[in-house]
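We treat protein structure as text, and this decision shapes the records that our systems exchange. We quote a single record here, exactly as it is kept in our systems:
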Amino acid sequence: MDKGFKLRLLAHKILFDIYKSKTNIDYLFKKYSIEKNDVRDIAFINNVCLNTMRYSFHAKKIISKFTKTKPKLNAQILLSSAITQILYLDFKDYAVINDSVEIAKKNKIYHGFINAFLRKICSNKEKLKKTEIVYSDLPMWFKNETIDLNIFEKNKFLKNFIKEPDIHLVFKDNDSLLKFKDKLVLSSSNSGFLVSKKKIENLSSYKNGSWWVQDFSSSFPLNNINNKLIEKTCLDLCGAPGGKSFQILAKKKQIIINDKSKKRLEILKENLQRLNFNTKITNLDYRKLNTNKKYDFIIIDAPCSAIGTIRKNPEIFFRKSEPSFKNLIELQGNMLQKTSEIINDGGVILYMVCSFLKIETIDQISNFLKKNNSFYLYTFSTNKNDTKQINFVKNNFMRTVPTSINNFNIDGYFAAYLKKKI
């Protein structure tokens, strides 16, 4: 069996499974034992799958230009993948066409149609590369949940969501950053964007444990935290794999890291060992937390639609079904309510989600404050010396769509500090 065909067939199976179900690419890599493949083969499949999902709206628009009838699902996914490889990944036309035709035969898709269609794509390659999408091309559920965004924010999202994410490193301290040998563009006094993409394990001082990977948006709310808030008892409610807790530990403060997922906790333990951090770990469902045990600072990085991480997780738009908003909103609200029962008077809850949708962010906070008049929105600390681009902090909220800073891509995110009155 031809290697290219074998790899493209695996990519096709993964894409089909993602569309039909709520599984993610990591799960499917394990299902098809892809991690046993050569490193370059893994990279190839990953590249094809992620970019096919990122460019699915472009491909859909192109398909509609060349055929009056909408292809069946299997054919549509096959064409989307081939279009992405030819137009956006610049793979060799003949290899993509030949393998796609063979995949069509194997899946009982009319291979003559696939062959003729892709040859038309190759003949119009330069023109089709300029295909643009507009906001109305995006999923209906997403458009309904972003009515509150202004034109500038919508255009920013359109411009950024298909771009590959950049790697952002957070260091234990400024001294560790200064000793780092690979080239960085600083985002604060203890963090920066990696200029050249490398395998993480091959980066300078990886084994020394002086830094960890954490998106800029995720690190921002805790980067300039008032140290008085974390002087006493701290809890990270959904803490694995650890990035936010590491920011607290790097300040020589203590925090209990909890997560209900044993699998995620295993990753956390590996990260703690590499970073030479030591702290208490618990494996509890948030509902089972002892209300007699109180904390002064609690981080809730709540489960959410993860739409802010669309560049890392393009399957969010690619799947047939939308996120389970009803369940997510209920879970987020319950987590906030639970933490209100275990926070000391004068204590602070930091609510965070990798989403910018109003229903998961501002609405969630507003509903919580209406039900809990003993809490108020606390000042969101920023340091203008660290970053000039803090225009996503308004009215004591941090909220941003996926965007860029210093020409590096950052995730969409939301954060708010809630303080309990004394």
User: Anything to note?
Assistant: The two ends are 70 Å apart (CA to CA).
